[in-house]
Specification:
By secondary structure, the chain is an alpha+beta fold. Helix 1 crosses helix 3, helix 2 crosses helix 3 and helix 6 packs across helix 8. Keywords: Nucleotidyltransferase, Sigma factor, Transcription, Transcription regulation, Transferase.
Amino acid sequence: MTDAPGASEPQGSTGQPILDRLAFERLTQAHRRELKLHCYRMMGSLHEADDLVQDTFLKAWRGRSQFDGRGSPRGWLYTIATNSCLNAIKARSSAHRILEQPGRLPTEGRATGGPAAELAWLEPYPDSELPDLADGEPGPEARYETSEAVRLAFVAAIQLLPPRQRASLLLCDVLGWSALETAQLLGGTTASINSALQRARATLAMRYPQGRPVERSRPNREEGLLLERYMQAWQAANLDDLVELLREDAIYHMPPWRDWYRGRDAIHDFFKTVWGNFAGYRPVATRANGQPAVAVYARRHQEPEWRAHSLHVIEPADGGIASLTIYVGPLGPDLFGAFGLPPAWL
């Protein structure tokens, strides 16, 4: 913290010092990961989430005299973090981040719509930063499982919600807070929170006819084999083997390009236009948003160095790939550091 405590600590209502530096560090360490995930869900940005967690802890340290130990320290931190996110959203040009440009039809053939630096793109979230289940376990009123509420498609869907609806849904349906607790955090009445929840759930129902994402199985042997085959296809630069792993109705996004593709044939036709741009590919397994992911390095013709090329987030379903999101340049390579990966190697 930049504001280190001085010789005189703030006094609570009992006149005793509260939240000295060691106690505060223990508190922030215990809740850092779940607060970062909450900020990520609110913002759709890994980098903004990092900044907002630091901002939350700085505000908490400066305002620690307002916490007298009688309430929940976790709730106190969530209040600061959520309001920081709402203020940050209000201050930026776009209220939400996207995987797909609204109103844009799927492309056929060569990509022509990007990269679009002026659009705010939803970023992936490394599994290494996910909180332990003990820290992130939702309350009894939560409507979503932890594994559902971190998936890339779910985070993209809630980005469509106005900020206050988004916060209400995350606090109630993801974290399991009551409408009363959420009203105390966000301000307003319980009725206003229930109204916001009703509208938010209606919006998600348009994206999810069953009212929630299709439940996916936990990581298993079948998923592991699918990932292995996917990596082998890239390693061998075998486009036919790669496309064979896609479901017939697969969806492919490629941020920061506007273009997106629907269906195995359309995805194959696009990849055929770019497949020979590099001399070879080297995949590295990772995980993002609770899903299998791959970081791909590429080597250009006549160059010895393997450079960060793209970050792939895979949505498996029924033994195949239902959705494939590949973060390409310049956005993709910039994400490697957050996943603990070097930008290049020989």
